[in-house]
Design brief:
The complex is a heterodimer. By secondary structure, chain A is an alpha+beta fold. Chain A contains 22 helices and 21 strands. In chain A, strands 1, 2, 3, 4, 5, 6, 7 and 8 form an 8-stranded antiparallel sheet that branches. A 7-stranded mixed sheet of chain A has the order 9-21-20-19-10-17-18, sandwiched between helices. Chain A has a 6-stranded antiparallel sheet with strand order 11-16-15-14-13-12, sandwiched between helices. In chain A, helix 3 runs antiparallel to helix 4 and helix 11 packs antiparallel against helix 12. By secondary structure, chain B is mostly helical. Chain B has a domain of about 280 residues. Chain B contains 19 helices and 4 strands. In chain B, the strands form 2 sheets. Chain B has a two-stranded antiparallel sheet. A two-stranded antiparallel ribbon of chain B has the order 3-4. In chain B, strand 3 and strand 4 form a beta hairpin. In chain B, helix 12 runs parallel beside helix 13 and helix 15 runs antiparallel to helix 17. The radius of gyration of chain B is 23 Å and the shape is globular. Classes of the chains: A alpha+beta, B mainly alpha. Chain A: It catalyses: K(+)(out) + ATP + H2O = K(+)(in) + ADP + phosphate + H(+). Chain A: It is found in: Cell membrane; Membrane. Chain A: Its main location: membrane.
C-alpha cells in the first residue's frame, strides 16, 4: 500500500480538478446534488441582485456587499465541485497508472501473426514466452509459466500460473519470466474490471449507494426545513417592521443548509473506492465498499491466511527407555535427504548438522504413497519416519511391541492440532516428532481487532475437526469449518445470512464461485479463475487473503466519514444562527444586540463572515473526506462518544471561533 | 426549602413512582395477560364485539390498523358535528345554550377528535350537557386512539420479524376500559370530595356580599375533568379551564390533576420497555425526556417566581412572583410548573393564563410544543419520540461505521423518507400557519390582544398548539373567527394523523424486515451516549427551525424588557 502513498494534492491532479470544478457548474450536473443545487440557484439570484444594485436598486445594500456575497457563494460551489473533482482525479490517476502498464503491447497470435493488444478480442488466443509482457487479461489454456506480477501487485517474488486449476488467470501488463503459455483473452477491450472501475470513478456509471440515497434524503429534508424557515421569515419580518435584504435571506439560507456534507458527499464515496484501489482491491461497485463496513462474519481460509503454508517440527517425544539423544540422531539422519519444508524444519529443530554424523554407504529411502514413510539405511541400521499406522505396521510385523506411551503421545499431538510422525530404528519405535501449523505472527492481534469491531471470524480448513479446533483456538478465530468442501462454505454463508448477518469471504477457485456470489462481499484473488472473479464483487490484485480485514475497515471509514461530517455540518448551524439572526434584526430592533454573543462588528460583516466560513470549511475538510475518518475498534458506544465529542461538540464550537476571526478581518472593509 | 418548590418535587416524583408499576400493568394489558379488571369488563367487551360484529382476535398489519383508526375517527367527527350543531334543541340543556355555528363546531369537534381540545368557546355558554358528554366521550376515545397506535409500535419491536401487529380494536377498547377509565374514576372521586360539581341542574344564582345577584354555572364537571387530564386532552368544562375554582378547587386537586396528566404518558414509556423486554431502553427514553422536561421547567419556575421587572419598577410588590393571570390559591411556582407539564405532554389544560407568562417562560411553553416529544401526549408522545430516534439512529449509526439499525432492523431510504417528512411536517405547519396569519392582517390583526412581538407570539402559540395537538392557548387571542377556526382546524387534522401514520408506517416496515442479531459492532440504543445523541437531534431539529421566529417573538420581547 505504501508505494501508492502519494501526497493528497499533486500538482497535475489539482490542475485537472480545478478545470473540472468549473465544468461541473453546469446545472444539469449540479441538479444531481439537491443541496448544492439550491446553492447554485442562490448564487444565480445573487448575481442578478448584484447587477440590480449596480443599476441603482434601493434598499438592498451596496453593490460591493452584494457582489462579495455573490463571489463567496460562487466559491462555495467551486469548492464543493473541486472536492468531487479531486477525488475523481485521484481515483483516475491511480487506475490509469495500473492501466498504463498494459497499453499497446504487441500480442503474438496462435497463428504467428503479431497484432496490437488493443485489437485483441474476447476469445482470441495468444502466445507468450519468457520475456514477453502479457498483452491482455486472460486464462491460460496450455502450459505453465513463472510470471512477474510486480507491475500490478508490487510483490517482487514471481508466481507460477498454469493451465487448469485455480491459478490459471494472468493479468495484462505482467511479465512472463520463464516457459511458454497459450492464453485465451477473457474480456472485450475496455471491459476489464479496471475499465469498469475507472468508469465508476469517472461518474458516468456511478450510482448512488443505498446509504448515500438515505443520507441524501436526510440532507434534502434539512434543506427543505430551511427553505420553509427562510420563506416564512419574510412575513414575520414584515409584521415586525424589519426589512431584510435579498442578500441576507440567501446568506441565511446557504449557511443553514448542510452545504459542508452536501458538497463533500460524493467525494467521500469516490475516495472510498479510491482507498480500496490503493490497497490494490478493485471494487465493482460503490455499494460493495459500503457493505464491507457492515460485515458481521468473515470466512477465511486457514492456509495462507491464518497459518504459514507449511508445518514445522516443534517437539521430539522419545519413547520410554530411549534417550533423547538417540532419538534426535535417528531423526536427523532420516531427514538428511528430506527436501520438504517439514524435513528441513526437523533438522532446524534438532540444531545438529547432519554431516557431523559419520555414516557409511547411506541409502536414502524416498517417501511414497504406499509406504507413507521415508528414511535412511546405512550399515545395518534402518531408520524410518512416517505416518503412525505405517510405522506401527512395520514394528508389529517385525514382532516388536508398539509402546503404549507412543500411542498416547500420538493422540495428544493430534488433539493439540499437530501432526505426529513416528520414528523407528530397526523396527523398534523410538519416539514421535511433533509437527505443528505455524500461525502467522500478528494474526491473533488482527482477529482481536476484528472481534472488537464486532466481526465474527470463521476459519475454513480441510483439516480434521480436532486439528481445526486447536488451530482455531490458538489463532483466536471464533468458529471453524473442518474437512471443508466447497459446498460447506456455501451452506455456512446461507445459514449466517438466514440469521440476518452479512458475510464476507475470499476465494480463488472456480468451485468458490457460487459462494463468492452468495457472500455479501466476495473478494476474488486476481490469480483466481475468471469464474471466481466474475462472481465476487471485488478483486484483490495482491492475492492477499488478509486483505478482507482492510476492506472491512475501508467500508467502515466510508460510513463514518459521512456520519461525522453530517454531524459537523449540522452542528455548525448553531453558531451561524448566532451570527446571522442578530445581524438581520439589529438595525430595526436594537434590543436584540444581546443576542450578538460573538460581538460581531456590523450586520454586513457578520453575514459575510458566516458565508465565508461556510465556504472555506469545505476545502479545509477535503483532506478528511479523502483520507476518511480514522476507525478505532473501541466498541460502538465509545466510538460514538468520541466522534460526537470531536465532530458534534467541535462542530458547535469551531464556527464560533472561525466566524469571529473572519469577522475581525472583514470588519476592516464592512 | 420553600414549600411551593417542595410541592412541585412531590408532584413530579409521585408521578414517576406511580408510573413505573403502572407501566408494567399497561404492558400486561396489551400483552393479553390476565388483569384484575378482567372480570368486570370482559362481559361488556364481549357483548360490544358481538353487537358490532368485530373479531377482536384477528391480527392486523399496520395498514389495516390505520384504516380502522381513520374510519372510527371519521364516524366520531360526523356524529360530533351533528350533535354540536343541533344541541340547542336537544335535551339536557338547562342553561338554554345555543347550537354551535358550523365553523365553530368544525373546529371544536376536530380538536376533540384529535386529542387537542383547542377551545374557541366557553363551556358555560357554548355547550349543552349533551354536548359536554359527547366531548367527554371524545376525550376517552381520542386518547384510546393514540394509545392503540402506540401499541402498533410496541408490537413491531416485540417479535423478530412479522407483519401481524395485533388487533386495533382490541388495543383501543382495552386502552379505554383498562387504563383510562379506572384512573379517571379515582381522580373523579377526589374532585367530588374537594367540591367539583356533578349535577344536571343548570345555573345557580347567589347574592354576593355587595348585594349583586351572580349566576354560577354548574354541570356534570366531576365526570368530565378527570379524563381531560388522564387522556392528556386538556379540554376544560369551563372556559378558563383548571384556573376555574370548580374545575381545580384546591392545591390538592391541583396536585391530583398534575399527577393524572403525567402518569399515562410516563407509564407508556415504561410499558414499552416491559412489553419488548428492554427495560433499559425505557430508562434511556425516560431520561432523555426528563432532562428535556427539566431544562424547560426549572427556568420557567424560576422566572415566574422572580416576577416582572417592569412591575417592580412601578413600585408594586413582586415577591409572590409574576402573578398576572395566575390563581392566588395555586401560586406562581405551581403555575409555572403546570405551564410546562401541560405543554410538553400535549394536555393543554391551564391553571394560569399563558399569555401572561414571562417572555422566556412563554418561549419554553412554545418550545415544549414545538418539540412535542418530551413525554408527549398519551401514545403519540412515544410515536413522536420514535421519529427522533430514527433520525438519531441514522446519523449515529454512520458515525460508528455501520449502516444504521434500530433494535435489529436496518433503517434504509424508505424509512428515512417517512421520518424526514414527519420531522418536517411540524415546523411546516407551525411556520406556514403563523406566516399566513402574519401575512393576512385583515383576518388576524383585530383578534390580537397585544401589538408587536407579543402579538406574534400569540399567533405563533395558536398555530403551535394546534400542530402539536396541545390545545392550550395564549388566551389573549380572540380565536372564534372563521379564519382561526378553519386554519387551525386543518392544522389540527394534519398535525394529528400524519404524525401517527408516519411512525406507524416506519414501525410496520421495520417489523417486516429481517432481524439482525446484536453484535459487538452494533450501536446499543439503550445507553447514555445514544441518549445524548437523541437529545442533540431533538434540540437541534427543534431549535434550528424555530429560532428565527422565536427571536422576533419572545426573545425580542425579553430583550426589550430587561
Amino acid at each position: 500500500m505504501s508505494k501508492n502513498n502519494k501526497s493528497l494534492f499533486q500538482k497535475e491532479l489539482v490542475r485537472e480538478a480545478l478545470t473540472q470544478s468549473f465544468v461541473k457548474l453546469n446545472p444539469k450536473i449540479m441538479f444531481r446534488n439537491p443541496v448544492m443545487f439550491t446553492v447554485w440557484i442562490g448564487t444565480l439570484v445573487m448575481l442578478i441582485v448584484s447587477l440590480w444594485t449596480l443599476f441603482g436598486a434601493e434598499g438592498q445594500g451596496s453593490f460591493m456587499y452584494n457582489f462579495v456575497v455573490f463571489v463567496v457563494l460562487f466559491k462555495t460551489l467551486v469548492f464543493a465541485n473541486f472536492a468531487e473533482a479531486i477525488a475523481e482525479a485521484r481515483g483516475k490517476a491511480q487506475a490509469d497508472s495500473l492501466r498504463k502498464t498494459r497499453e499497446e503491447t504487441p500480442a503474438k497470435l496462435k497463428n504467428g501473426k503479431t497484432i496490437s493488444s488493443a485489437q485483441l478480442q474476447k476469445g482470441d488466443v495468444f502466445v507468450c514466452e519468457a520475456g514477453d509482457i502479457i498483452p491482455s487479461d486472460g486464462e491460460i489454456i496450455e502450459g505453465l509459466a513463472t510470471i512477474d506480477e510486480s507491475a500490478i501487485t508490487g510483490e517482487s517474488a514471481p508466481v507460477i500460473r498454469e493451465a487448469g486449476g485455480d491459478k490459471s488467470s494472468v493479468t495484462g501488463g505482467t511479465k512472463v519470466l520463464s516457459d511458454r503459455i497459450m492464453v485465451q483473452v477473457s474480456t472485450q477491450p475496455g471491459e476489464s474490471f479496471l475499465d469498469k472501475m475507472i468508469a465508476l470513478v469517472e461518474g458516468a456509471s456511478r450510482q448512488k449507494t443505498p446509504n448515500e440515497i438515505a443520507l441524501t434524503i436526510l440532507l434534502a429534508g434539512f434543506t427543505l426545513v430551511f427553505i420553509i424557515v427562510c420563506v416564512t421569515l419574510k412575513p414575520f419580518a414584515d409584521y415586525a417592521n424589519v426589512s431584510i435584504t435579498i442578500a441576507s435571506f440567501i446568506a441565511l439560507f446557504v449557511c443553514l443548509i448542510p452545504t459542508t456534507i452536501g458538497g463533500l458527499l460524493s467525494a467521500i464515496g469516490i475516495a472510498g473506492m479510491d482507498r480500496a484501489l490503493r490497497a490494490n482491491v478493485i471494487t465493482k461497485s460503490g455499494k460493495a465498499v459500503e457493505t464491507a463496513g457492515d460485515i458481521d462474519v468473515l470466512l477465511l481460509d486457514k492456509t495462507g491466511t491464518i497459518t504459514i503454508g507449511n508445518r514445522k517440527a516443534t517437539h521430539f517425544h522419545p519413547a520410554n527407555g530411549i534417550e533423547e539423544k538417540r532419538l534426535i540422531k535417528a531423526v536427523v539422519l532420516s531427514s538428511m535427504a528430506d527436501e520438504t519444508p517439514e524435513g528441513k524444519s526437523i533438522i532446524e529443530l534438532a540444531g545438529i548438522n547432519p554431516l557431523s554424523y559419520i555414516v557409511k554407504d547411506p541409502k536414502f529411502i524416498k517417501f511414497t504413497a504406499e509406504t507413507r514413510s521415508s528414511g535412511i539405511d546405512y550399515e545395518n541400521i534402518r531408520i524410518r519416519k512416517g505416518a503412525t499406522d505405517a510405522i506401527k505396521n512395520l514394528v508389529i510385523e517385525a514382532g516388536n511391541p508398539f509402546p503404549r506411551e507412543v500411542e498416547e503421545t500420538v493422540k495428544a499431538i493430534s488433539q493439540n492440532g499437530g501432526t505426529p510422525l513416528v520414528v523407528s530404528e530397526n523396527e523398534v519405535a523410538l519416539g514421535v516428532i511433533e509437527l505443528q501449523d505455524i500461525i502467522k505472527p500478528g494474526i491473533q492481534e488482527r482477529f482481536e481487532r476484528l472481534r472488537k469491531m464486532g466481526i465474527k471470524t470463521v476459519m475454513v480448513t480441510g483439516d480434521n475437526p480436532l486439528t481445526a479446533k486447536f488451530i482455531a483456538e490458538k489463532a483466536g478465530v471464533d468458529d471453524f469449518i473442518a474437512e471443508a468442501k466447497p459446498e460447506d462454505k456455501m451452506n455456512y454463508i446461507k445459514k449466517e445470512q438466514a440469521e440476518g448477518r452479512l458475510v464476507a469471504m475470499m476465494g480463488d477457485g472456480t468451485n468458490d464461485a457460487p459462494a463468492l456470489a452468495q457472500a455479501d462481499v466476495g473478494v476474488a484473488m486476481n490469480s483466481g479463475t475468471q469464474a471466481a472473479k466474475e462472481a465476487g464483487n471485488m478483486v484483490d490484485l495482491d492475492n492477499d487473503p488478509t486483505k478482507l480485514i482492510e476492506v472491512v475497515e475501508i467500508g467502515k471509514q466510508l460510513l463514518m466519514t459521512r456520519g461525522t461530517l453530517t454531524t459537523f455540518s449540522i452542528a455548525n448551524d448553531v453558531a451561524k444562527y448566532f451570527a446571522i439572526i442578530p445581524a438581520l434584526f439589529i438595525t430595526a430592533i436594537p434590543a436584540l444586540q444581546g443576542l450578538n454573543i460573538m460581538r460581531l462588528h456590523s450586520p454586513e460583516s457578520a453575514i459575510l463572515s458566516a458565508v465565508i466560513f461556510n465556504a472555506i470549511i469545505i476545502p479545509l475538510l477535503i483532506p478528511l473526506a479523502l483520507k476518511g475518518v480514522a476507525y478505532k475498534p473501541i466498541g460502538a458506544s465509545a466510538l460514538l462518544r468520541r466522534n460526537l465529542f470531536i465532530y458534534g461538540l467541535g462542530g458547535v464550537l469551531i464556527p464560533f471561533v472561525g466566524i469571529k476571526l473572519i469577522d475581525m478581518v472583514v470588519s476592516v472593509f464592512f | 426549602m420553600n414549600t411551593e418548590i417542595l410541592g412541585i418535587i412531590v408532584m413530579f416524583s409521585l408521578s414517576v413512582l406511580l408510573a413505573i408499576p403502572f407501566g408494567k400493568y399497561i404492558a400486561k394489558v396489551y400483552g393479553g395477560e390476565k388483569t384484575l379488571l378482567d372480570p368486570i369488563f370482559n362481559p361488556f367487551e364481549r357483548l360490544f364485539y358481538k353487537v358490532s360484529g368485530i373479531n377482536s382476535q384477528t391480527e392486523m398489519n399496520w395498514k389495516q390498523q390505520m384504516v380502522a383508526l381513520l374510519t372510527i375517527n371519521m364516524v366520531w367527527f360526523l356524529l360530533g358535528m351533528l350533535i354540536l350543531m343541533t344541541q340547542g334543541s336537544l335535551p339536557l340543556n338547562p342553561d338554554k345554550n345555543p347550537s354551535m355555528s358550523a365553523y365553530l363546531a368544525f373546529n371544536t369537534v376536530i380538536s376533540f377528535v384529535v386529542n387537542c381540545n383547542l377551545q374557541h368557546y366557553s363551556g358555560e355558554t357554548g355547550l349543552s350537557y349533551i354536548g359536554q358528554y359527547w366531548l367527554m366521550f371524545l376525550q376517552f376515545v381520542s386518547a384510546g386512539t393514540g394509545m392503540a397506535a402506540a401499541v402498533v409500535l410496541f408490537r413491531a419491536f416485540r417479535d423478530k420479524s412479522t407483519a401481524d401487529l395485533g388487533n386495533f380494536y382490541n388495543h383501543f377498547v382495552k386502552s379505554c376500559t383498562r387504563i383510562l377509565l379506572p384512573v379517571s374514576l379515582i381522580v373523579a372521586v377526589v374532585l367530588l370530595f374537594e367540591g367539583t360539581p356533578m349535577t344536571f341542574e343548570g345555573k345557580d344564582s347567589i347574592t354576593t356580599l355587595e348585594g349583586d345577584v351572580q349566576e354560577v354555572s354548574r354541570g356534570p364537571a366531576a365526570a368530565f375533568i378527570p379524563i381531560k387530564h388522564v387522556g392528556t386532552n386538556g379540554g376544560g368544562f369551563y372556559g378558563v379551564n383548571s384556573a376555574h375554582p370548580f374545575e381545580n378547587p384546591s392545591y390538592l386537586t391541583n396536585m391530583v390533576e398534575m399527577v393524572a396528566q403525567l402518569i399515562v404518558p410516563l407509564a407508556m414509556v415504561f410499558a414499552f420497555g416491559y412489553f419488548i423486554c428492554r427495560r433499559k431502553l425505557s430508562w434511556m427514553i425516560f431520561s432523555v425526556m426528563t432532562v428535556g422536561f427539566l431544562m424547560l421547567t426549572i427556568p420557567n419556575i424560576n422566572m415566574e417566581m422572580n416576577g416582572n421587572p417592569a412591575i417592580a419598577q412601578m413600585g408594586i410588590d413582586n415577591t409572590l412572583g409574576a402573578m398576572e393571570g395566575k390563581e392566588s390559591r395555586l401560586g406562581a411556582p405551581a403555575s409555572g410548573f403546570w405551564s410546562i407539564v401541560t405543554t410538553v405532554i400535549s394536555t393543554g389544560s391551564v391553571n394560569s393564563m399563558h399569555d401572561s407568562s414571562m417572555p422566556l417562560s412563554g418561549m419554553n411553553e412554545l418550545l415544549a410544543m414545538m418539540i412535542n416529544a418530551f413525554y408527549g401526549g398519551v401514545g403519540v408522545g412515544m410515536l413522536n419520540f420514535f421519529v427522533f430516534v430514527i433520525l438519531a439512529v441514522f446519523i449515529s449509526g454512520l458515525m460508528v461505521g455501520r449502516t444504521p439499525e434500530f433494535l435489529g432492523k436496518k433503517v434504509e431510504a424508505r424509512e428515512m423518507k417517512i421520518a424526514m417528512v414527519i420531522a418536517l411536517l411540524h415546523p411546516f405547519l407551525i411556520l406556514v400557519g403563523t406566516a399566513l396569519s402574519a401575512a393576512l392582517p385583515q383576518y388576524t390583526m383585530e383578534t390580537l390582544n397585544n401589538p408587536s412581538f407579543h402579538g406574534l407570539s400569540e399567533m405563533l402559540y395558536e398555530n403551535t398548539s394546534s400542530a402539536a395537538n396541545n390545545g392550550s392557548g395564549f388566551e389573549g387571542l380572540g380565536d372564534d373567527t372563521i379564519w382561526w377556526n378553519i386554519s387551525t382546524g386543518f392544522i389540527l387534522i394534519l398535525g394529528r394523523f400524519l404524525p401517527i401514520i408516519g411512525p406507524i408506517a416506519i414501525a410496520g416496515l421495520l417489523a417486516q424486515k429481517r432481524y439482525i442479531p446484536e453484535g459487538d459492532g452494533t450501536l446499543k440504543t439503550d445507553t447514555a451516549t445514544f441518549g445524548l445523541m437523541v437529545f442533540a437531534v431533538i434540540a437541534i431539529v427543534a431549535a434550528l427551525a424555530f429560532f428565527p421566529v422565536l427571536t422576533l417573538g419572545p426573545i425580542a420581547e425579553y430583550f426589550s424588557l430587561y
